[in-house]
Amino acid sequence: MAPDAQPQKLIIASNRLPLSVKRKDGTYEAIPSSGGLVTALKGLKYSDYLWLGWPGVDIDERDRGSVDKALAKENAAAVYLDENLAQSHYNGFSNGVLWPTLHYQSEVLFDNETWEAYQRVNKIFADRISEEAADGDLIWVHDYHLLLLPGLLRERLHAQNKRCPIGYFLHTPFPADDFWKGLPFQKQLLEGVLGSDLVGFHTDEYKANFASACGTHLGAEVEGGKIHYNGRIISIDKYVVGIEYQRFANTIDHPEVQARIQELETQHKGKTIIIGVDRMDYTKGLPEKLEGFRVFLEQHPEWREKVVLIQIAIPSREDVKKYQDLEGEVSKLVGQITGKYATPIWTPLLYIHRSVSFAELTALYSVSDVCLLTSRRDGMNLVASEYVACQEARNGVLVLSEFTGAATFMQQGSLLFNPSNANGLSDALYDALTMEKGDRKKMHEELRSFVTTNTSSKWTETFVGELKKLQK
Ligand code: ADQ
Fold first, then answer.
1. Is-above-0.90 flag for pTM?
2. Residue 53, pLDDT above cutoff 60
3. Is 379 near ligand 1, meaning CB less than 6 Å away?
4. What number does the ligand 1 atom closest to the CA of 314 have?
5. What is the residue-averaged pLDDT of the chain?
6. 178: nearest Cα among 202, 206, 213
7. Quick check: 308 pLDDT over 90?
8. Cα–Cα nearest to 466, from 224, 210, 230, 197
9. Which of 439, 445, 429, 433 has its CA nearest to residue 391?
10. Is 41 in the pocket of ligand 1 (CB under 6 A)?
11. Is 64 helix (H, G, I), strand (E, B) or coil?
12. Cα end-to-end distance, the chain, whole Å
């Protein structure tokens, strides 16, 4: 930073803004949206920040002034993208190629057109952010949609003589080098990320995989938490993402939520509730969850009419064929299980395929004795933490896939299993449902201590704090 420049704002960049823009009475308004990244950044307390991202819809040139105004009130600004370009970048390369690769799924849909779109969008973000950034600003780039952005930004900022530390955080896993190397253009993508000064991951495993890929494919030198590349030193580390614990605790205390909890308890009297909350995504292992639950009902007839699985599946990426197929598969399995095991007085599972309000979500977490999360792979999984935050009274059991980042930190307090093994899942469920009160309490305390310590505020403060230290 130049001697007379002051540390200024924090610029956050993510593909989507944490807001959706909606037209109302001839003008635009910005409405908060939900999702893992939004939850992770809930604790941000930086006073002067600006969040840049795509508003999610194509906005006519004439309307942009009105959208800009609505977003400015929320510390946000739009990176406008033409609809086709945005789709090709988002559904094409980001979700068709990167998302599966980062989650160890080998079925990728690669073509040159989507790769072109991916590069173009990253360039548009780089142009927009470099215009917006003043010397000394901090820049924090998020997630797999913007892997090239740090490198592109570095070039532009250098040309403009602005010295802004660039941080990058990946919200997904980073796979083992041998898997990653199958990805076309993987070297360019690694180089893009290494344009950052600081790179963050959920776990040590992802960090080590990334460092190994940089060593093998770029010839970078890796030394502890530093990568030496092209005469620069890039810091890499694990930063444990969390939730705003207190926000959940406060919501539960709200009279309306308490009333809803009582209503749900009355409705399900005499039944033990198992809760599942996931985006409708193949990485979340919904078919595996349903198959495990089916095996459980088959192996433990004594639990029929005594247990109910409430599965909330938030609609996600609905215009992509693979996601439509998944929805079809899940609906079919739900129908098969219900058809086979339901009785005139009981249905084994309630399947809710839509978003629910925050109050409803906390009430559902609160009344459930078990939370079942079966991800095939998951960067972290914040639902696990949210469930714990709502279990002060009940000390419910967390049954967690060993392939979540969360399992790395929460293994002491939860029952881990491999979601591909339906029998193992059924056994874990049985152990959870029959666990002694004392053991439940002990496990809950382990989890509670993790969730209250590793909050979203702590994550944002730690990452931004490290970034600040890199201001030159
Ligand atoms: P996601 O894949 O979105 O995030 P996750 O961490 O589980 O996954 O977060 C989902 C969020 O959506 C939670 O905060 C949850 O409350 C919210 N949500 C869930 N169901 C909802 C519903 N029905 N209505 C409204 N909101 C709902 C990505 C990565 C994860 C990583 C996060 C954060 O895939 O591995 O943990 O980013 O880094």
1. yes
2. yes
3. yes
4. 23
5. 95
6. 213
7. yes
8. 197
9. 445
10. no
11. helix
12. 5
pLDDT in tens, 60-91: 999 999 999 999 999 999 999 999 999 999 99
Give residue 164's Cα distance to chain centre: 26
Out of 141, 277, 281, 283, give the residue to mutate to test ligand 1, the one with the largest number of ligand atoms within 8 Å of its CB.
277
Among residues 397, 374, 384, 383, the alpha carbon closest in space to that of 445 is found at: 397
Instruction: Give the percent of the chain with pLDDT over 90.
Output: 90
Q: For strands 221-223 and 415-417, give the pairing.
A: unpaired
Neighbours of 106 (CB within 10 A): 8
Measure the CA dihedral 174/178/179/181, to 10°: 90
Domains of the chain are 10-241+457-470 (3.40.50.2000), 245-453 (3.40.50.2000)
Q: Can you name the residues that pair with 30 across neighbouring β-strands? A: 21
Other C-beta atoms closer than 10 Å to the C-beta of 359 total 14
SS3 state of residue 166? strand
pLDDT tens digits, 1-46? 444 445 579 999 999 999 999 888 888 899 998 888 999 899 999 8
Residue 48's φ and ψ, nearest 5 degrees, are -110, 100
ipTM comes to 0.96
Q: What is the C-alpha to C-alpha distance for residues 315 and 312, in angstroms, rounded to an integer?
A: 9
Residue 173 Cα to ligand 1 middle (Å):
14
pLDDT per residue as tens digits for the range 87-122: 999 999 999 999 999 999 988 878 999 999 999 999
Are the CB atoms for 273 and 346 separated by under 8 Å?
Answer: no
